[in-house]
Amino acid sequence: MTRINWKKVTANSLRHAMELCLEHAKERKNLSVDRVADLMGLPNKWTIYKWLENGRMPAVLIRSFEHACGIDLMTRYIASSAGMLVIDIPAGKAADHKEINELQSGFAEAIGLLIKFYAGNAEADETIGALSNVMGGLAWHRQNVAKSGTPELELFGGDND
Length: 161
Fold this sequence. Notes:
The structure is a single chain. It contains 7 helices and no strands. It is mostly helical. α1 runs antiparallel to α5.
């Protein structure tokens, strides 16, 4: 089984986003569904399974679910399904060569998928996800450069991922 690159993963439905969040909780934080429910203050895991079954969750609990799981895929899906582009808020700190190389490789991957898509050899969901990741990465770096004159304090540590 291949490891998921959580920085590049995109959900194609709200239910898929919920499944990916739970998978992230299991893989990265070693949390079971029972533990996620406990962290959310729910009485048992069956409530989460019910939400997963029908693809619905009360909106007021989305952020606590994502916080417990350690990833915000549901919020990103909701925003992207409304035609919005979501980026993390940059702090204005200098990027290192690794981040620039990741951006470049993501750009090359997205362009390759775009070429394959127009040739009929790639899926639309996969292509859209790659293009959205690249656009978000470029927007992040644009804003990071704009904020570089007045960097923010790092209050809670670095990246989660």
